[in-house]
User: What shape does this take?
Amino acid sequence: MTSKSKIAINRDNNRRRLLLSLRSDNWLLSRLDLIWTKYFSDIPQTNKVFIKFGRNAKFRLGSIRLDKQIKASYITITSMFKDPKIPQEVIDHTIGHELVHYAHGFSSTHPRLHKYPHAGGVVRKEMKERGMEYFFNAYKIWMKEYRKQILANR
Assistant: This one.
């Protein structure tokens, strides 16, 4: 391998690291803050809410859980979403989805509004009512292609 090709490889690796570092836990927190302010401003934060990237998961893109001892909600987003190839709208959709659960009393200190978190399509309905249908549509388009990739790699 020539020194020029080593430099090119190092440059590509450094560029990839830089792009991945742009989507950090702090970046996620800023997305959460923006989405909460813009779409969920009527939902009070009745307990602390944390967000971070978790392990790389193909199917569970996001989750929210409540630590009952300290009354804190934890949103975890798949680290697959650190990849800049994933559209930001898909990540915003996932954060919005988890905030709907929070607002409906799942993994939060709010009163529970439904027996089940996805009963009758309540998440999609709520997102639509809050003006987030654009995120849902972007997610749907991305998911269609993502499923094709997963099936092709079997």
